[in-house]
UniProtKB/TrEMBL annotation:
Keywords assigned: Membrane, Signal, Transmembrane, Transmembrane helix
Name of the protein: Uncharacterized conserved protein
Segments traversing the membrane: 192-212
Organism expressing this protein natively: Mycolicibacterium gilvum (strain DSM 45189 / LMG 24558 / Spyr1) (Mycobacterium gilvum)
Domain YncI copper-binding: 29-175
Amino acid sequence: MLKILLRIVGVLMVSGVVALLVSPSATAHVGAYIEGGEPGETGLITLRVPAESDNPPTTKVEVRIPDDIQIRTVRPQPVAGWQLDIEKKKTNPTIYRDDGTAVDEVVSSVTWTAVGPGLMPGQFDDFVLEAGPLPDVETLSLPTLQTFADGATDAWVEPAPEGSDPEFPVPTVTLGAGADSAPSGGSAMTSVIAWTALGFAVIAVALGLFAIDRARRSADTGSLGAAPPPERSAVAE
């Protein structure tokens, strides 16, 4: 019985490792999370950009505001060693500031370009936007382009509806009561880890029950095989 359980543990360990290695979603994604996510308010949106160990350094990160979304104020946070560029688009329809002044342009994209070596493989960095008022939507997607030193670009723009597992999911934040408190974009990897952990937990419980049963059997065998106590000799009267 013990050998069978140990064999199952080995199979689960190998399966978990293989799943992590072969799944395209096991690689690190560009993730997004938000602080203060109520529609109509200002929030801090953080894009966490990883640099994979098998890729060249990341030298450019471009974040785009979707065409159908107009956010009156978008302020990017400077990052040391990176140059900031901001593109704007015409508002349609016109939006207004709190004092009634019309706003005819809003930010359409923000680009951080490395002026040095960039984001080296095996590292990550955070790129932050202060945005508001946030739109009245449940989720806000932020298509992001990650460009490498060799000129190649990963386009993190693929929609990721529930149950799907795209290779390059678009970074998305949830607005309102369900606002994200951790970076999005790693659901598949999280699922693999969770199922692997569950498998180990089941095996651990089985091993524990086996140990208890074995100890009980040993105790029973010991009690059955023990020699009976010697009879006391009759004392002559």
